[in-house]
Design goal:
Elements (H helix, E strand, L loop, with lengths): L24 H9 L1 H29 L15 H16 L6 E2 L1 H30 L1 H4 L6 H8 L19 H16 L4 H21 L7 H4 L5 H14 L6 H20 L1 H4 L4 H17 L10 H11 L1 H22 L1 H5 L1 H34 L11 E2 L10
Antiparallel strand pairs: 1-2
Helix pairs in contact: 2-3, 2-14, 2-15, 2-17, 3-7, 3-10, 3-13, 4-7, 4-17, 8-10, 10-13, 11-13, 15-17
Length: about 400
């Protein structure tokens, strides 16, 4: 998913965070990048990919005249909810220099566009090409010009079956991301504490208005879905990070365990969970898990190999999320046509499909996504030096925090 954690230049900090004044550059960088959250992003992207890999494994087994028993200790689709919470967190955490600064809103939104649009448009174009050349490969039967344009512009639109999704189905999450970015850019003209308060109020107000005015037509119904509250959960965690809150390891473990247990209950009793709102069933547990990861102390340069690998996959999680359906479907075709599904079985297919997905995502991130993002930022005039040109608004109507 398209969250990034950028180094933040010198900013005003409250007294309780003065530890950064004596930190080494490596230690300061670790606090800025929240390495535990990067690992959590990798886990969230993998959970979504695992859900789809199991679905294709079940299809293969059905074609082979057998059945597949899926492994679902938690709802794997809740990885999306984890992403939404992380997005709210990272936008607050990585944008601290932009609050109440002239040009901050433009810089924020431009960098978000440069981060999301190039890869998403590339994948959507690839999807359209495959759908037009080989419709049976993607089971795609609904494409028209208006729908395509709305998909590229992140405008929610309903398909003939009533499902509100863009041409490339996974893009529904990006439609929510873009809505959040626009709201965030509008609030960023205020000091951080007020901006987040306005943002949370706006998100809650949109949900309440949507419930009171229901039924609404699209895109208003989509934009007022309670799932947008998950961004509010993340933004609140971002404020806690800014305050320097550092709970003990025991407390964090208890909170994370509670979140994981809640997701396990949701998976164990899906017929009950479906009667509740998604932000309650998936969003709150996701927020508890993200809270535990975000407020953990950094490893101060001594991360394990597994942690470094997880952070690397986290960096490539956007590519992993967008590209995994292509890789899994291609692996499914290979397994069926070569008979490997009979020889190796469904779980071998899942493991190999996920391993191949990781490789494709890492290569795409390194050699395509990163260069494309840098080029897009240069075109938009928001390259690496753009932050240094920011200046506070001429009138300061709020007290200093230090």
């Amino acid at each position: 998913m398209p969250d990034e954690q950028e180094p933040v230049a010198t900013i005003s900090t409250p007294p309780m965070r003065r530890e950064s004044e004596t930190s080494t550059p490596v230690e300061a960088r670790q606090r800025e990048t929240l390495p535990q959250v990067q690992i959590l992003r990798a886990i969230a992207a993998t959970s979504v990919a695992l859900r789809h890999a199991q679905h294709d494994a079940a299809t293969l087994e059905l074609q082979a005249g057998s059945t597949f028993q899926a492994w679902n200790p938690i709802p794997w689709s809740a990885g999306v909810d984890v992403f939404f919470v992380i997005s709210g967190l990272i936008m607050v955490h990585s944008s601290r220099q932009l609050f109440a600064k002239a040009g901050g809103a433009r810089l924020f939104l431009s960098r978000r566009i440069a981060r999301i649009v190039p890869l998403y448009w590339s994948v959507t174009t690839l999807y359209l090409g495959v759908a037009l050349l080989s419709p049976t490969f993607l089971n795609q039967s609904y494409i028209n010009l208006r729908f395509v344009i709305e998909s590229y512009l992140f405008i929610p639109a309903a398909r003939p079956d009533g499902i509100v999704q863009p041409v490339y189905e996974l893009g529904w999450t990006l439609n929510y991301e873009m809505l959040f970015y626009v709201l965030f850019a509008a609030a960023i003209v205020l000091p951080m504490r007020w901006a987040v308060a306005v943002l949370l109020t706006t998100l809650a107000g949109m949900v309440v208005a949507g419930r009171l005015a229901a039924p609404l037509s699209e895109p208003l119904a989509f934009w007022t879905n309670p799932i947008i509250l998950e961004f509010a959960f993340g933004a609140t965690i971002g404020i806690m990070c800014a305050w320097g809150l550092r709970p003990s390891g025991f407390i964090r473990a208890c909170v994370a365990g509670t979140g994981l247990a809640a997701l396990m209950l949701a998976a164990a009793f899906p017929e009950i969970s479906i009667d509740f709102s998604r932000p309650l069933v998936y969003g709150v547990p996701a927020a508890l898990i993200v809270w535990s990861a975000a407020l953990a102390p950094s490893e101060r340069g001594h991360e394990s190999l597994a942690a470094r690998w997880g952070a690397g996959v986290g960096d490539a999680s956007y590519a992993l999320y967008l590209l995994h359906p292509f890789v899994i479907r291609a692996m499914r075709i290979i397994f069926w046509r070569t008979g490997l599904i009979v020889l190796l079985g469904p779980w071998a297919f899942i493991v190999l499909a996920l391993a191949t997905t990781f490789g494709v995502a890492l290569i795409t991130y390194r050699w395509f996504e990163k260069p494309l993002t840098r080029h897009a930022r240069r075109l938009l005039g928001v390259g690496a030096g753009a932050r240094r040109q920011l200046r506070p608004f001429p009138v300061t109507a709020y007290p200093k925090t230090d």
